[in-house]
């Protein structure tokens, strides 16, 4: 671990693999080439927390860590220059979400949807500018509560606001099959009541199909049984 990695957090990366890196252009003066690298061992320069409330992609509102260093092609650390981190959502322009007055940065940002990210290093003195880019998928947040009593099921809210269908899947052996769909109301809320078996358990999962703005949204697996 480099001496400048004092704010690194031990978490698991699940952002998409780096997309084609943005091109690095060396000036005519043959300044020393540089590259963007992750400042945390075993991580990229942007990565989500290992904590998961839903399976699959990071969830809307999750923290994405920015851990960025600049080095030469030979691996020597670069300290001078500035960094700019930008995010582009589908159909939107690039937006600056973090900056640093030095060639390293340790901050965080929130996951708000499927996005492209890039970091731009300005260059300094004998060091050439450079840049790097990645893409990341994000799913909507399902805030769910179980319902028990005479009728078992789930009620919840989708975040951010969503007016559409929530698909209810039932497990049959090793496969999941569509059981029914429910629609959210004007407040992005919904409820679904589920049958119980005479014995054993029925297993359920809720999903919202993917879109340009969000990846497929998946709930944890729930079950119903007699006495639930």
UniProtKB/TrEMBL annotation:
<feature type="signal peptide">
    <location>
        <begin position="1"/>
        <end position="30"/>
    </location>
</feature>
<keyword id="KW-0732">Signal</keyword>
<protein>
    <recommendedName>
        <fullName>Htaa domain-containing protein</fullName>
    </recommendedName>
</protein>
């Amino acid at each position: 671990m480099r001496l400048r990695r004092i704010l690194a957090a031990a978490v698991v990366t699940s952002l998409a693999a780096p997309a084609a890196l943005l091109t690095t252009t060396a000036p005519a003066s043959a300044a020393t080439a540089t590259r963007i690298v992750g400042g945390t061992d075993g991580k990229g320069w942007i990565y989500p927390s290992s904590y998961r409330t839903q399976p699959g992609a990071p969830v809307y509102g999750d923290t994405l860590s920015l851990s960025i260093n600049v080095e030469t092609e030979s691996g020597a650390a670069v300290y001078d220059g500035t960094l700019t981190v930008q995010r582009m959502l589908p159909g939107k322009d690039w937006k600056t979400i973090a900056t640093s007055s030095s060639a390293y940065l340790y901050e965080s940002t929130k996951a708000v949807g499927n996005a492209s990210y890039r970091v731009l290093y300005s260059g300094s003195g004998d060091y050439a500018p450079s840049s790097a880019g990645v893409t990341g998928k994000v799913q909507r947040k399902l805030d769910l509560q179980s319902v028990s009593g005479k009728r078992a099921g789930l009620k919840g809210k989708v975040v951010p606001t969503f007016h559409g269908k929530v698909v209810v899947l039932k497990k049959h052996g090793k496969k999941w099959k569509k059981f029914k769909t429910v629609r959210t109301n004007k407040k992005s809320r919904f409820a679904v009541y589920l049958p119980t078996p005479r014995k054993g358990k029925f297993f359920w999962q809720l999903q919202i199909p993917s879109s340009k703005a969000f990846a497929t949204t998946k709930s944890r697996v729930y079950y119903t049984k007699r006495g639930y």
